[in-house]
Amino acid sequence: MVRYRHRVASTRKLVAALTRPGPHRVLRGDLAFAGLPGVVYTPEAGLNLPGLAFGHDWLTGVERYSRLLEHLASWGIVAAAPDTERGFAPSVLNLAFDLGTALDIAAGVRLGPGKISVHPNKLGVVGHGFGGSAAVFAGAGMKVKPKAVAAIFPTVTSPPAEQPSATLNVPGVVFSAAGDAKKLRSNAVELSRAWDPSTLRIVSKAQPGGLAEGRRLATAFGLGGPDRKTQKAIRALLTGYLLYALGGDKTYRDFADPDVQLPKTDAAEQATTPVTPEEKFVALLKG
Questions:
Q1: How confident is the model at residue 125, as a pLDDT?
Q2: Which domains does the chain have, with CATH numbers?
Q3: How many helices (H) and strands (E) does the chain have?
Q4: Cis peptide bond prior to 197, omega within 30° of 0
Q5: At 132, is the secondary structure helix, strand, or coil?
Q6: Is residue 109 within 8 Å of residue 31, measured between CB atoms?
Q7: Each residue of 10-20: pLDDT tens digit?
Q8: Is the preceding omega at residue 82 within 30 degrees of 0, hence cis?
Q9: CA–CA separation, 19 vs 189, rounded Å?
Q10: How far is 115 from 82, CA to CA, in rounded Å?
């Protein structure tokens, strides 16, 4: 019991630390130099760093994730984000392809003044909402499989991300919010059930649309505005997961352990109860 309490206290300290910026100064670059609209955030210096490609949500440009991407870079993770497929009818397959391209750029060239490089075996794909499902497609379609994939409040796409997730065979984490199982747009629970091995994290009092920063066009469609508590929780939980899953830092192993309930999360058991499309529709009608 004493050992368990010590572990919980240690994890709480890690989460608290990860809500704050890391020790690295951050540089911002432009992916357009390699022919792809988008941005890349890096630590000021570092060789053989972990790197990721980040996919944005529907009607949300990458500038709405600047603090998240800066946060990851401040903890030593290179983050490249393509700014494509921003229209009303984006293609999840095209965004997935662009995520793969962004990751190739980040891993294939020396960044900054030549003092920054990404290790080819420390690559991941991450996305929010629409981009979360695109991240799954990207991970499944890459010739060299990424080390990990993270889907943050993923949403339903056509074709559905559950199809590639069933054969992904890459460790991953799906972040969801309480009640997402009954929401028509969310496929977080279905995705986590189809994807093995993956860990489902229910972020406490989260607002799925609140991860994006500032005002965005999607708020006009009732998808919600920014939520600071959601942003802080995801920054900490995602950073800890990536430091272990991509960087191999065992200090953060609990962030990838499905048997450990992390601070800022709720128990996942209730969210894994199967919900039919008809039940989701009824829940939508009830508001």
A1: 98
A2: 2-286 (3.40.50.1820)
A3: 8, 9
A4: yes
A5: helix
A6: no
A7: 899 999 999 99
A8: no
A9: 26
A10: 23
Residues 54 and 101 sit within 8 Å (Cβ to Cβ): no
State the Cα angle at 203 between 158 and 82, rounded to 5°: 45
Alpha helix positions (H), the chain: 2-18, 66-74, 92-108, 130-141, 162-165, 188-194, 228-245, 277-286
Contact of 101 with 83, CB cutoff 8 Å: no
Six-digit token string for 148: 């990990």
pLDDT at residue 281, rounded to an integer: 42
Q: Which two tokens stand for residue 43?
A: 């630590």
Do 233 and 201 form a contact (C-beta atoms < 8 A)? no
Q: How far apart are CA 220 and CA 177, in angstroms?
A: 21
Both tokens assigned to 167: 């054969």
User: Using CA atoms, how far apart are residues 79 and 29, in angstroms rounded to an integer?
Assistant: 10
**Mean pLDDT across 204-226:** 77
Q: With 50 as the cut, is the pLDDT of residue 181 above it?
A: yes
